[in-house]
Amino acid sequence: MKKVHFMSETGYLGPGRAPAPDIPAEVFRLAVEQAALAISITDAKARILYCNPTFQRVTGYAGDEILGQNESVLSYKVTPMLVYETLWAQILRQRPWNGLLVNRRKDGSRYLAELTITPVVDAAGKTSHYLGMHRDVTEVHRLERQVQNQKTQIESVVDAAPVAIVMLDERERVVLDNQEYKKLIGELGPEPAATLLAALRADLGELFERARYSGRGFAGREVRHAVDGRKTRWFACSGTWIDEQDGSADAFYEPARRQYMLLVIQDITALKEQQEAIRVNALRAVLAEQERIQGLRETLSGAIFQLQTPFNMLAAAVRMIERQPDGTMAEAFTASLEEALVSGNRTLDTLRACVPSQSDETIGPVDLNALLKDLLRLLTPRLLADGITVTWQPADLPLISGRPTRLATLFKALLENAIDAIHESREDRRELRLATQADPDWVEVVVEDSGPGIPEEWRYKVFEPFFTTKGAGRQHIGMGLSAAQEVVIGHGGLIELTSAPDGGCRARVQLPTT
Ligand code: FAD
Q: For 362-392, how does the pLDDT look when each residue is reduced to its tens digit (9 = 90+)?
């Protein structure tokens, strides 16, 4: 039996190191003959000495047409010369070469050949022949290119999208992102997806996991991104989970799946700001109208209150005169006084009828934090003008049921009182603290100012109509707190004024949650 010499990937194995030395040479010949690979054996100059039927089928050449010809008969000149040079440099060093060549069939059509050339080395260590094995990989290449092209197209579409798109693996590491997401990193710092996901988890609670396992995902969830010292940003986030087949060899027969999360992030800060501005403007308009009506009520009530006293005195005078013994002169005098009294009371009734009634606002759910924040925004110009530092400490509050405009009027009055107090004080410290707190039965709002505070003896008096602690000459007749108390009582709540820990005044309002 002839000795067969083999080359490994790294070099010559030598005689006798064949994987199956007991197999007859005829079996090797038949195996090559029947192989599904295009196999050729050439001399050292690449002249074809043998080719198997698959070679003939792939190239289109019959055996007798091609035997004796150089393998270069298959070459199509788009393959760069460097490729052939590398091929030859490798095989001349008795090393196998593997690569891709563009081949031309007998009919002129081209195909992509994945070729392995193995030098066959004789016992003297000389390359006597070459073994060429190739297969047509045109279709595989076409499909690969198609996938690559589609990937490129998808990537450019994703990159051009006006929203940030990011794909996260199971450990929430970013595996793919687009230009908009990269822009977000630049603006918000590293990995905004992690921060947004944490906020989404907090917001969605168990719905987050349900969205994942149901396969439905979530859409358009608004998330706030607030970092100290930076402008608050708002994002609308949508999440979808995508299953991917594991491409590793282990998973070939036992498919394993990996899950990725596709997170689409849309910056809605501008929209939110616009909505906020619209809301604050609407609140401003409603409160201005409320204040106009309240002002009218106060003026008319004040006038009635003022007029009532002389009329009472007049009535008392009539009664006194009526009791005098000599009647004639008294009768005439009483008659005219009574006439004056009747017409005066008529005037009072007319005035009372002119007092506008409080509009009957419907009770609905109220987000106190949002309302207070809107009021702060509304009062920002005044706060800035007075150089007041605001500390806003909202707690997580449940919605309460109430009359939103009335409540807005109440808290606006408290905040304006605080601003007025700070304005009037000559202190360097100009601070206003607005805080909310929740209790199972109550929600509490605290307004503290660094103004002069309210003396103990005025703590209850300030809630009386027409009582004011503010300087004369101001257009404030002291109805603010009495009206505020009316609103609080109307909501079943409590209001009290005490001294703030650092001086100043603290207004505390408690409203029931149910
Ligand atoms: P060539 O002038 O033949 O070769 C280009 C360069 O290759 C030369 O400049 C030179 O640097 C080097 N070169 C060529 N022949 C030799 C040599 N005998 N010794 C040293 N250096 C040399 N080519 C295909 O296109 N398709 C195939 O399927 C294919 N199968 C092959 C199978 C085997 C077993 C072998 C040994 C070679 C095969 N070749 C194949 C390579 C082929 O022999 C040619 O080198 C190639 O086709 C380029 O031919 P060419 O006429 O364009 O240029």
A: 899 999 999 999 999 999 999 999 999 999 9
Distance, in Å, from the CA atom of 418 to the CA atom of 507, rounded to the nearest integer, reads 9
Q: Which long-range contacts (CB under 8 A, 24 or more apart) does 60-63 make?
A: 60/105, 60/106, 60/107, 60/109, 61/105, 61/106
What's this model's pTM, rounded to 2 decimal places?
A: 0.60
Q: N- to C-terminal Cα distance for the chain?
A: 101
Residue 251 is given by DSSP the state G
Return d(Cα 493, Cα 410) in angstroms, integer. Answer: 12
Query: How far apart (Å, rounded) are the C-alpha atoms in residues 294 and 480?
Result: 9
pLDDT value of residue 4: 46
Pocket of ligand 1 (CB under 6 A): 40, 42, 45-46, 70-72, 74-75, 81, 84-85, 88, 92, 101, 103, 113, 115, 117, 130, 132, 134
C-beta of residue 221 within 8 angstroms of C-beta of residue 236: yes
224, 232 Cβ separation under 8 angstroms: yes
